[in-house]
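Final report, closing paragraph on structural work. Over the funding period we assembled a curated collection of sequence-structure pairs, and we close with a single example.
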Amino acid sequence: MNLFKYRVSLYLAIVFITSACTTQQTKENSHPNFIVFIADDAAWNDFGPYGNTHIKTPHINKLAEDGIIFTNAFLTTSSCSPSRCSILTGRYPHSTGAQELHMPLPANQVLFAGELQKAGYFTAVAGKYHIGPKRSEFDTIYGGSPSGCEHWVEALQNRPKNKPFFLWMAAIDPHRNYFPNTITEPHLPNEVIVPDYLPDNDSTRKDLALYYDEIARLDSFIGKVLDELTIQGEEENTMILFMTDNGRPFPRAKTRLYDSGIKTPFIIRWPEKLKKGTVDALISSIDIAPTLCELAGADIPASFQGESFAPVLENYSAQTRNYIAAEHNWHDYQAHERAVRNKQYLYIRNAFPHLNASPPADAVSSITYQEMIKLYHAGELNEYQQDCFKEYRPAEELYDVVSDPNQFKNLAEIPEYKQALGEMRTLLDEWIEKYGDRIPENPTPDKFDRWTGKRLN
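Its predicted structure, as stored:
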């Protein structure tokens, strides 16, 4: 070998060894990256890992195949902006000061993104923001329409490469309104699964098929982000969480405190740290804030009301809480309901039982609900499908979620469940006292008609 070739070979060897050592050192000392994918108005069981194999979600399915499927994860409310504000602050909606739809989050509320930022993270939002004025806790804020996912890959590409990152990737899919041909191979009405509380007819099936299409569009963007992570070599050290902000925008789902409203898909993949599995621990969406801060080595503010589920990630059989709590505040219509739920029972208390349980205004104006109104007047809806139209509702509801997963049979007035009812009442009373919850003296009135969905003057 001549002298020139020898020097070149020696130089390349030194570069390779130095690079390998640096890469190993960086890997050992690096903080995990975080990506939260959050869908907008999607039911927990409208994804392959939770039983609906009719919806085209190959990338979400793959996340579940490689990660952890949580079967008992819940939101603190089934309402868009209050849910997001609750997640980002780690606080119950009434504690955030933004408990009603479209209320801006007060400036004094602490976001976990800010704590990550202090710990050296780059933070960004891409997609639906919906928490009020822009916050400095996010270094960059991207928009996106109509899917809300259009700038997800760009957000990942444009991040500084010398920092760990937290990306809040917030879809608008599958929020109403719906339009045909959202995807190249639309779902067919005969492919959908109609829940028992909706009438199985052409209107419902067409509506659900369009809803499925938007979920599939969301899934396609998740796939693009996963590909970009691989290209950047960040796949192994990135913890991905997939969830939704509330239930599907159909009757007896969004805004309601049944599982159809507050239960969320909750899938975590983190190849470097977590093996695949299934977890049945109770998780609340306010637990995300302290968990990510703990995993990042960031401070956990005293304002957080959630419980870190980091122990569950170490031991899949661990339990970090005994119950979850949820709220229904104003969302187009006057409301004040509170719920506590454990693995056996769901208890709901309604401060305004004289009001019907109208779905949100956009769901009221949908083809599904307008057809349901006709069937209601014709006496052709079954007991469960009439639920939204009852103008005097029980002040208390109790359900055995094990034997009655749809929460159809109210046990509150059945003598055999008196003890269970008393225990759940006490649990809610203690939660109300602990977190300073109160029924408003001047509740926000309806701003839309409950039968047409049209805005009131």
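The CA atoms of residues 430 and 436 lie 10 Å apart. Confidence is low (pLDDT under 50) at residues 3-8, 10-29. We thank the funder for supporting this effort.
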